[in-house]
From TrEMBL:
Pfam families recorded: rve
Listed Gene3D superfamilies: Ribonuclease H-like superfamily/Ribonuclease H
Segment forming the signal sequence: none
Annotated PANTHER family: PROTEIN CBG26694 (PTHR37984), PROTEIN NYNRIN-LIKE (PTHR37984:SF5)
Record-linked SUPFAM superfamilies: Ribonuclease H-like
Name this protein carries in UniProt: Tf2-9
Region of interest called Disordered, as start-end residue ranges on this chain: 380-399
Single GO molecular function: nucleic acid binding
Length: 399
């Protein structure tokens, strides 16, 4: 069993952890448009203008989604999207959560956010759960487009506004409010109210409208506080259920680890699932770690504990900064011989001869061994009439 745990190939092709190795950490927003999650969705079927990529942003409090179709992703287009779709419409956010893609982690975007006082939070490599709100927004868009497009897949750009409008005017179970009301303080007039008049459209009076809007806005702060408390309660309940399944897997500095293979070839099912080993440099927090090569070169970006596993030789001594001595040969096993000495007695049989007998065990070869014991007046309760000793020969096995 110890050999299997330390087999290099067995580790590289092993399955990942079934249980989560880290507690669930919730990410809440104290007020609308404080924290945004940004992600790239695509590629889609080619639309007119060679458009195939979608830049998506979602507010963590109101769940309001902004999306911009583009032909190709670039740093300048991401910068323009952040300025036009988020900052100019909803104000400066405090934080923006994104993955480690070049379009988000480039020097241009970093300097742009730093100049406006916006803090960037990057997810760990191969761990999109950190930006779970953006991933949920992606699912909403994809589900809506699939239902509306059917066979006309190339018209997804034209259908996108309708999908977002339907989402913005639908109450969410976590808040019991629509994103439109949480964002703007009042409900939008939807198409259903044109064909089937509602109380608002039927009894609308110009004189009382201003008073009703003012009263509605006065209540908005209480509504948002109730939504914040409700969402916090739901997330705490989910975290409690999730954390029951957690099997902690804490890594320490200098541990040798394997990480999930990056840039896997989708068509090649024989690609190893893990690569390395790497050395843990430090723990960043909340299950994120900085890694380095065995030569001491730091690996950019962080890795989550869910994408790491201890290497079988993690306890072996590192001789210097350039190499690690692995003391186990996975292809050869040297034979080991062990000798045991047995004195005067086997079970209840009395051995008259005081000389000891040696039994030899070979761990790699199996061959018969004949051992001779000398007995005198009897074995167990049986007595021999002949006083001369009798030799009993016993066959054993060398293992």
């Amino acid at each position: 069993m110890n050999f299997i745990k330390k087999c290099d190939k067995c580790q590289r092709f092993a399955e990942g952890y079934k249980a989560p190795p880290e507690m669930l950490h919730t990410m809440a927003s104290p007020w609308p448009f404080y924290r945004w999650g940004v992600d790239i969705l695509g590629p889609f079927p080619l639309a007119p203008g060679q458009i195939k990529i979608l830049i998506v942003a979602v507010d963590y409090f109101t769940k309001w989604i902004e999306a911009e179709p583009v032909a190709a992703i670039s740093t300048e287009k991401v910068k323009k999207f952040l300025w036009k779709k988020i900052i100019c419409r909803f104000g400066l956010p405090a934080t923006i959560v994104s993955d480690n893609g070049t379009q988000f982690a480039s020097k241009t975007i970093v300097e742009f956010c730093h100049g406006l006082g916006i803090k960037q939070i990057f997810t760990s490599v191969e761990h999109p759960q950190t930006n779970g709100q953006a991933e949920a927004a992606n699912k909403v868009i994809m589900r809506g487009l699939r239902r509306r497009l059917e066979e006309a897949k190339g018209w997804w750009v034209e259908e996108l506004p309708q999908v977002l409008w339907s989402y913005h005017t639908t109450p969410h179970s976590s808040a019991n409010e629509t994103p439109f009301r949480l964002a703007f303080g009042t409900e939008a007039v939807i198409l259903v109210e044109i064909g089937e008049p509602s109380l608002r459209t039927e009894f609308w009076e110009p004189e009382a409208n201003a008073i009703e809007l003012r009263a509605n806005l006065d209540m908005m702060q209480e509504v948002r506080e109730a939504v914040h408390i409700r969402e916090f309660t739901i997330k705490a309940r989910v975290a409690k259920l999730y954390n029951r399944k957690v099997i902690p897997c804490n890594f320490k500095p200098q541990d040798l680890v394997l990480r999930r293979t990056v840039h896997k070839v989708e068509s090649n099912k024989l690609t190893p699932k893990w690569e390395g080993p790497f050395r843990v440099k430090k723990e960043v927090g909340r299950g994120a770690y900085k890694l380095e090569t065995l030569k001491g070169k730091e690996i950019p970006r962080t890795w989550n504990a869910a994408s790491m596993r201890i290497h079988g030789f993690a306890s072996d001594k590192v001789l210097n900064g350039n190499s690690t001595k692995l003391t186990m040969d996975s292809t050869q096993i040297s034979p080991v011989r062990a000798t045991y000495t047995v004195g005067h007695g086997f079970a209840s049989d009395k051995v008259l001869n005081g000389n000891s007998t040696k039994l030899t065990m070979d761990s790699t070869r199996i061959s018969p061994v004949r051992t001779t014991y000398t007995a005198g007046q009897g074995f167990a309760a049986h007595k021999s009439q002949n006083r001369n000793s009798t030799k009993l020969t016993m066959g054993s096995t060398r293992i």
